[in-house]
């Protein structure tokens, strides 16, 4: 089938919930993908920070085939070997205590919200049920997580929204202090805001949040669905800051493209859940956790992380060298970068795609760069060259 044929059939049968680009991607290898008409693209979107080892990684393919031949699915009523193995890896890397597995970032954040409320309920402090979140954040599409998301455009039309969330200004400790009450249970945020425009937190801000949580006896939750799994140059983004959470959520890159999410918590916070309090039919299934096992092992290798950090610095330096008076700022950490412009970038995204470079915005004026973590300098040079050409055509 051609691009046109796939698009026509899709428009007939697939629900209209995405503003899709007019191409159908059918093949990928490494940092490249091909559409149904055979056109090649350099992919600096990576499924939106998902394909951390690129497309069709041979190691991930091998372990998936091996696990599929042994066992596809059993209920979490039984112990699942690869789930236990990847839980051990994540707990040891994070310094936390226990892991819960699900299928997506929204589910991981939903689990964190439920754990927070149940934790204080079990401590006979059920009044502590309010979570401080941040403007311009993004935490998912379920009713609870879209309410936790500090962007009204994602909430419009879904009223009544659940109660229990209040919104502070990111990187503004004063606005957080003003919202602390006897009902505050947790502070939840991204160490690097993704959909809100690729805004890294200030280190002093995170340190102060940790101090506030300790002082008030409340939980600190890091949503690392997009900024985790090596994306910022350390396996967990909070490790770049030296600030430890009580709960952290993961998804996107955890399976390198295979759907899987996770929530990690300290041993103390994890006491909030008992059997029957929360569950997921497919969460932590043999296929997903087998893939996550090899991915975590690969990405957490110190040499891999050091290389990712260097590549992120090289990409940021390359983008900073671009001379264009429409560029306001290049920012981010590791291989999670944003280029902010003084104009809407929708047309620029299209021009890049036409020239064979896949990018996407993080808000209307920020171009997001989240390529595979194992890209190389040649591919970075190619992407930057295409980006510069696109800028010349963009009016």
Number of domains: 2
C-alpha Rg, in Å?
21 Å
Do you know the CATH architecture of the largest domain?
Answer: 3-Layer(aba) Sandwich
Could you name the CATH homologous superfamily of the largest domain?
A: Type I PLP-dependent aspartate aminotransferase-like (Major domain)
- Mean pLDDT comes to 97
CATH fold annotation of the largest domain: Aspartate Aminotransferase, domain 2
Structure notes:
This protein is of the alpha/beta class and 395 residues long. It folds into 2 domains: 3-56 and 302-393, Aspartate Aminotransferase, domain 1, CATH 3.90.1150; 59-299, 3-Layer(aba) Sandwich (Aspartate Aminotransferase, domain 2). It is 38% helix and 18% strand. It contains 14 helices and 17 strands. Strands 4-12-11-10-7-5-6 form a 7-stranded mixed beta sheet, sandwiched between helices. A 4-stranded mixed beta sheet has the order 1-2-3-15. A hairpin with a 2-residue loop joins strand 1 and strand 2. The longest helix is centred in the C-terminal third of the chain and has 19 residues, at 302-320.
